[in-house]
Amino acid sequence: MWWLAVLVAIVAVVGAYATWTVARVERLHRRARAAETALIAKLDDRAETVLKFVGNPGFEEVVALALSVVAVPAATRRQRELREYAENDLTHALRELSRDPVWTDELESANRRVALARQIHTDFVRDAVASRSLRIAVLLRLHNRLPRPQYWDIDDPVQ
Question: Which residue range forms the structural domain that includes residue 114?
Fold first, then answer.
């Protein structure tokens, strides 16, 4: 009869571990999605900050790039790639413009917020991708049920 108690205890421990792992993997995926939403919001905020400089001499190219960023949503894979290219172009243009005396603390602050949101998103995606390779997650086929989080391939605006 003692073997039945041991078997029930083993099943309970394995079940608890599986439940904990599933909850952890799902939580990391939710955090990665939330971080991506926050990153997109910060990128949009930076573009809106740049758009405040419409009409200032020397800002024509940067404003045009900001308009192209705002015009491209990130709903599909292709749109996301286009958005990444537009964001990288805007970042490079802003780096060249940073020597301009019109450059404000507001633009610098927007770039810092984008860099922080990008780092947080990258950390959460890394953790979510790593959690997908846990033995119990593979055994339960969580990688088939949950969409794989994707990194944003954008340059760091603060360098």
Answer: 1-144
Q: Distance between alpha carbon 76 and the CA centroid of its chain, in Å? A: 15
Task: Tell me which residue has tokens 């970042």.
Answer: 91
Is there a domain that residue 159 lies in?
Answer: no
Rounded to whole angstroms, the Cα distance separating 87 from 53 reads 17
Identify whether 158 is part of a domain: no
Mind listing the pLDDT tens digit of every residue in the chain (159 residues)?
A: 888 888 888 988 888 888 888 888 899 999 999 999 999 999 999 888 888 877 777 777 888 888 888 887 877 888 888 888 888 888 888 887 766 656 677 888 888 999 999 999 999 999 999 988 888 877 878 778 888 899 998 888 877
Q: What is the DSSP secondary structure assignment for residue 100, as one 8-state letter?
A: S
C-alpha–C-alpha distance, residues 72 and 70, integer Å: 6
Q: Is 122 contained in some domain?
A: yes
In degrees rounded to 5, what are phi and psi of residue 19? -65, -45
